[in-house]
């Protein structure tokens, strides 16, 4: 699995998400400002509700723009896994849990939770702000990582780092 290709898929997905969010924000704005949605009495809240939706959509657009910009900057700095430095932002990491389940993660500066499919293999984006992302920083292949999630300890082994 090539981490440059994974990052490219992440950028493409963020671009598509941005386009969808911008269209939704524009639709919500048009609904909020349409003359038919002007309140006729204090119980007529359609315009108010639409304005809340428009504000939320606009915020989502800005969040996606920020994620896209940070990941585009990462693309310019992406380097091969360094066995001396260990896992850092930009690493593609294979993990195995205590039950033998494998998963692939891409440690990015933003866009946590985004998932892309690489030849039938799902890759999930995590950030150093997450407990798992923070625990992975500086680790090497073969290292074990332990995190506490909702009071339960989870153990993982780093099977690959790229």
TrEMBL record:
Q: Which keywords does this Swiss-Prot/TrEMBL entry list? A: Elongation factor, Protein biosynthesis
Family matches, as InterPro entries? GreA/GreB_C_sf (IPR036953)
Please list the GO terms describing molecular function.
DNA binding; translation elongation factor activity
Q: Which GO terms describe its biological process?
A: regulation of DNA-templated transcription elongation
Q: What is this protein called?
A: GreA/GreB family elongation factor
Question: Which species is this record about?
Answer: Pseudomonas veronii
